[in-house]
Write a structure and sequence with these properties.
Strand content: 15-25%
Number of helices: 14
CATH superfamily of the largest domain: Enolase-like C-terminal domain
CATH architecture of the largest domain: Alpha-Beta Barrel
CATH class of the largest domain: Alpha Beta
Number of domains: 2
Number of strands: 14
Helix content: 25-40%
Largest sheet: 8 strands, parallel
Order of helices and strands: EEEHHHHHEEHEHEHEHEHEHEHEHEHE
Distance between the termini: 12 Å
Radius of gyration: 20 Å
Oligomer: single chain
Strand order of the largest sheet: 5-6-7-8-9-10-11-12
CATH topology of the largest domain: TIM Barrel
Amino acid sequence: MRIRQLTSYRLRLPLKREIRHASQARNQSDNLLIGCQLADGTQGWGEGVPREYVTGESVDGALQQLSASSLEGQLVQDCHAWKDVIGLCQQLRFFVPHDDPRNCYGNALRCAVELSILDAFGQLIGEPLNVVTRHFQPAHSIRTSHDQVRYSGVITADNKRAETISAAKMRIYGFAHCKIKVGMAADDDRQRLSRLRRWLGQRMDVRLDANEAWTAEQVFERVERLLPYRISSIEQPVAHCDVNILKDLRRKLPVRIMLDESLTSNADAEDAIRRGTCDLFNIRLSKCGGYLNSLSLAARAHAAGLGYQLGCHPGESGILSAAGRHFATSVSHIAYLEGSYDRHLLQEQLTNEDITFGYGGRAPPLRGPGLGVHVNQQALNRLATKCQTIDLN
């Protein structure tokens, strides 16, 4: 079976509330959606969330990159089994319009195209996406099967009342993990953390995300002041240009360091392992170039004795939420899990199925073929602002 065509959409997804952190503030998410249609009419879907401050991508740039990538000559292979499909995805090459030393430009596009292909062939084969982990050789050391996974809560930078309500809800609804955004210029993080820790309770695993907020000169003092509140890790405390300072910070402070904006590719992972700049990777499917690349990064971290979390971008629709669920239920040793915030964050759902996590962040595997979710065509018509089609045969 071959791919007949790819259709790309620019989506604008309104959020229920503004999401703020040290790098950005947004009340909507501009996403890339790809539809993959096979020769027999089977339709698969994939999503990417380009973020210029992370990988240099925008939705418009991704659409231009897709048009310039000559996929007509790359997607002509007949696929009969997962081995063929995985090989097809690994051979994909996208046009890069400039130097890309970290090999991350186009990651959101790759994620969207790859997921659409995996979803379409998963439906054709009749198996869920999570079985790809079993068939992907680099992931051999980390493959598993979970009957349930547990998502983390997140408290973004907001006013005192909203933050307090969020913390109280997480405790009442039985969450075990919570991430708190820190580093906003107007905030006193020590006072915020003291207040939020009281509401979250002492049993809650609390980690922090600074989103590159601090300079190399500030970071030691800023993190040290927050240690009394029993934080389990600090995510991306400095900008990527200062990331090498984190090797010394790891030696000085009894808290794990996680990379996010500095962890976008295998090149970044190799550099982090060689230089010893972190204890944890924050792997996000869109940021890291799709399902297969993310599996490779998790396996690489595991082999190096490092931990990893599966993160997400605020504003992901049910397409990426479903992909994250398949990853989480088939990969071992995930320290923290983010995503499936759909109903809590999006004003309108793109998928027919609601896979938002339940009480305490708990969620089951998805059993349907491919992603196990379907795009609502009426919602797509309302949310899409641009559409283009590439015919492949």
